[in-house]
């Protein structure tokens, strides 16, 4: 086991700003493209800027786009998120298609999740050695190969009759007995 996580800040896994409850809020706030106008390693980023940048900006009006030309420097994409995270990615010698995919990844993620030690809301001194419970934990193994619907596995076949159902049947029998007695008296 590594002690690397001791030096990372602790954080909980949660949806920022309850994202997905109500409306979607894009977590990416700013994206900066740093590139060289003449360096060969910036070729893919320059192609992305020429072909896709205007379309990206139109599709994502909530994201501020900056371009920063720098002489004789390696190309970099920097994304800044709502939670204050900054993700820095070197795109040296990457193709136009790879950069398009990485920009989409930066747009859809919520910041640098790997830079914090994840914590849980629950804690126990004696964790279960049996593993987590799933809905399939106590299912009958024969269900895996059965052709459904099968009356053998029907829910009503295994359950006893409820008290309400028994009372309803008793009432029906009582009504039939009363009608039979009335017919006998009428004859």
TrEMBL record:
<keyword id="KW-0496">Mitochondrion</keyword>
<dbReference type="GO" id="GO:0032543">
    <property type="term" value="P:mitochondrial translation"/>
</dbReference>
<dbReference type="InterPro" id="IPR039927">
    <property type="entry name" value="Ribosomal_mL43"/>
</dbReference>
<feature type="domain" description="Ribosomal protein/NADH dehydrogenase">
    <location>
        <begin position="37"/>
        <end position="110"/>
    </location>
</feature>
<dbReference type="GO" id="GO:0005762">
    <property type="term" value="C:mitochondrial large ribosomal subunit"/>
</dbReference>
<dbReference type="InterPro" id="IPR007741">
    <property type="entry name" value="Ribosomal_mL43/mS25/NADH_DH"/>
</dbReference>
<dbReference type="Pfam" id="PF05047">
    <property type="entry name" value="L51_S25_CI-B8"/>
</dbReference>
<dbReference type="GO" id="GO:0003735">
    <property type="term" value="F:structural constituent of ribosome"/>
</dbReference>
<protein>
    <recommendedName>
        <fullName>Large ribosomal subunit protein mL43</fullName>
    </recommendedName>
</protein>
<dbReference type="InterPro" id="IPR036249">
    <property type="entry name" value="Thioredoxin-like_sf"/>
</dbReference>
<comment type="similarity">
    <text>Belongs to the mitochondrion-specific ribosomal protein mL43 family.</text>
</comment>
<keyword id="KW-0687">Ribonucleoprotein</keyword>
<keyword id="KW-0689">Ribosomal protein</keyword>
């Amino acid at each position: 086991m590594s002690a690397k996580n001791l030096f990372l800040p602790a954080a909980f896994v949660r949806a920022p700003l309850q994202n997905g409850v109500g409306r979607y809020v894009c977590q990416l706030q700013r994206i900066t493209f740093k590139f060289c106008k003449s360096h060969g390693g910036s070729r893919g980023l320059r192609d992305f800027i020429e072909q896709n940048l205007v379309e990206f900006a139109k599709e994502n009006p909530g994201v501020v786009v900056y371009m920063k030309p720098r002489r004789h420097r390696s190309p970099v994409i920097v994304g800044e998120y709502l939670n204050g995270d900054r993700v820095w990615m070197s795109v040296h010698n990457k193709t136009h298609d790879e950069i398009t995919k990485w920009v989409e990844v930066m747009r859809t993620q919520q910041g640098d999740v790997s830079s914090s030690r994840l914590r849980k809301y629950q804690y126990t001194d004696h964790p279960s050695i049996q593993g987590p419970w799933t809905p399939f934990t106590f299912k009958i193994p024969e269900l895996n190969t059965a052709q459904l619907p099968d009356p053998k596995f029907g829910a009503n076949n295994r359950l006893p009759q409820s008290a309400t159902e028994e009372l309803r049947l008793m009432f029906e029998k009582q009504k039939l007995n009363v009608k039979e007695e009335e017919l006998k008296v009428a004859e």
